[in-house]
Amino acid sequence: MTDQLDVIETHSRYCQALDGGDADSLVAVFTEDASWTCGPMGTYRNHDGIRALCKLTAEVSGGAVLHTTSNHVVDVDGDTARLRCYLTGISWDQAAGVGPHVGGAGRYDVSLIRQGDTWKIRKMDIYLFDDPQAMDDRYKA
Predict the structure, then answer these.
(1) For helices 46-61 and 2-20, angle between their N-to-C axes, nearest 10 degrees
(2) N or C, fewer C-beta in 10 Å, the chain?
(3) In 16-135, where do the E strands start and end?
(4) Whole-Å CA distances, 78 to 73, 110, 114, 139, 141
(5) Which chain positions lie within coiled-coil regions (predicted)?
């Protein structure tokens, strides 16, 4: 069970780093050759792309976003793993008087590899349940 918990922790670190706009911590959970794909947002590749994703998310959200996950299923096969879970994105805008609300929902499908004692994300695919046309144009690739 330790590997499964370590994989979930890696994904939790991803969520917290992205929400906090911490590009160094975000890059640290990805392999050098990683890819991150979310339909209307497009694909970001390698550490430079992941840094760009972090910067974009911080600029658009203004730090007012929380990615929460649930229903984690982890399959480990040696030094590779697959994580599947649900996503609920919570956002708000105090200046506009908009309180916390669900800004999006979907699911993650994540491939990871073990590097030493650490699990790293090699490929992350995000599938949104809502209408991709409703997404803020600033997020679209």
Answers:
(1) 50
(2) N
(3) 30-38, 42-45, 65-77, 80-93, 98-115, 118-128
(4) 16, 16, 8, 36, 35
(5) none
DSSP reduced 3-state for 76? strand
For each of the domains in the chain, give its residue range(s) and CATH number, in order of start. 2-133 (3.10.450.50)
Question: Cα separation of 113 and 115, whole Å?
Answer: 6
User: What is the full per-residue pLDDT of the chain (141 aa) written as tens digits?
Assistant: 799 999 999 999 999 999 999 999 999 999 999 999 998 789 999 999 999 999 999 998 888 999 999 999 999 999 999 999 999 999 998 888 889 999 889 999 999 999 999 999 999 999 998 755 545 566 665
Taking alpha carbons only, the member of 75, 81, 21, 86 closest to residue 50 is 21
Q: Residue 130 carries which DSSP code? A: S
Torsion angles phi and psi, residue 117, rounded to 5: -100, 10
3-state SS, residue 113: strand
pTM above 0.85, yes or no: yes
Sheet holding 98-115, edge to edge: 42-45, 30-38, 118-128, 98-115, 80-93, 65-77
